[in-house]
Sequence to fold (534 residues):
Amino acid sequence: MPHASIDRPDTAAPTEAPGEPLRCDVLVVGGGINGVGIARDLAGRGLKVVLCEKDDLASHTSSSSTKLIHGGLRYLEYYEFSLVRKALQEREVLLKSAPHIMWPLRFVMPHDPAMRPVWMIRAGLFLYDHLARREVLPGSETVDLRRHAAGAPLKGLYTKGFVYSDGWVDDARLVVLNALDAQAHGATILTRTRCTEARRSAQGWEATLKTAHGAVVHVQARALVNAAGPWTEEFLRRDAGQKNTKSLRLVKGSHIVVKKMFDHPMAYIFQNPDKRIIFAIPYEDDYTLIGTTDVEHHGAIGTAQIDESEIAYLCEQASRYFRKPVTRADVVWTYAGVRPLLDDASGDPSAVTRDYLLELDTAQAPLLSVWGGKITTFRKLAEEAADLLCPPLAHTPSGWTEGRFLPGGDLSAFIGAPQRPDTDFERFDQALAQRHPWLPARVRRRLARAYGSRVGLVLGAAAGLADLGGEVAPGLYEAELHYLCAHEWATCADDVLWRRSKLGLHYTEAQRDAVVQWFATHAVGAAREPAVAS
Fold:
């Protein structure tokens, strides 16, 4: 049975001598996908890395995406060929690295003659198929929606469709896996720890970190990485003493979740009269995810929420295509995030570039700031960031992450040599069913998706459900909660229900409250301060 209290050695910072600051080569500020990706790459090159995140990992933009590993088909209209090619090259690299949290997905675009003409769509899809090499993902095709399965949920006026490939990702778990790999290579990951001040000298950076409970951590770093996402500009000006900085354009993207609109496993991409597109994607088995919007955000960065006009817009545009209208009453959940886009003076938020810029300042101690970016290109961004930082730190190892598995992604102990990411996962799930026949199929598959080959850390030596401890909420046992607290930085119910998993979407309010109560009464160690020098 799980123990009542939880030790959290994985989150504790190494303790220096009394009165001494925590010393490292690089301090990374920001626990979104770019921050953890950079920390992982640098740590794997042998540098001593500390990462601090003021909230939970993936608390904001990195858990509020449309959950796609994609090249960005619509960016071709804005002549973003370099960005699209880079993203297309990364799709299969990422799919192979973590087949449990990423998988191929086919997209159906119903043709609306009032929108883009057929020749334009075919030309775009030809480029999409050929801008980068494909090994796993099939190419595009034209289909007759009157006979194709994807046509059944659509209005009868849509008779022709175009089908192409991209990928799906559990975005919040992608962040956690990168943090786990960074830690495995020696990085220190400090969540709920804000960098309140960073001061620069010729010798390096002196930073002050403050935990959620008020403990102060002093850090001396040879270099500083600003990967604060929407807070990048604010952090530079307010906390790092940099007055002349670039500007971010903050664009809110919102999504709605409704009950399942169709039974097949494909997603839809819908063209709208305003020339934007939205996606309708199979989500969490029982739902359909619809989004996203592009709205200028002028409020507080960390409090973005969907507004009624965005809900109405997404319902209206989806209803243009689906036989069954999507109404406000159908919406069971919403989420919104703020994209930190580099301001390129574009009048249309949808046209603002999704590419990134890495800005390295070596006037004194190195300062690297990350401007913009998208989840698909995070690994390449991190590699390029490390390539920029290593020379001024007199460090020579080169990039290593391409072709490497993320934690849980190497399924060979269960299935032998990998073949294809999508079929490999199905083989893994079957092997897990043979090893643990007592696991209910839905629970087993969720655990397989979440943890991949690390699932043994959750199940331990369990020989039956009783060995997993109490069932705190349907399908959620104490053993998993203890694992998440001890190894994945979970400290409250929201971390588990909405980021480490999406179980909150499936639970009633009473069931969610049961998880809240479990944390209040059992997770003693989760409330402890990490062991840090102050």
Q: What stands out?
A: The mean pLDDT is 92. The longest strand covers residues 248-259. The first helix runs from residue 33 to 44.
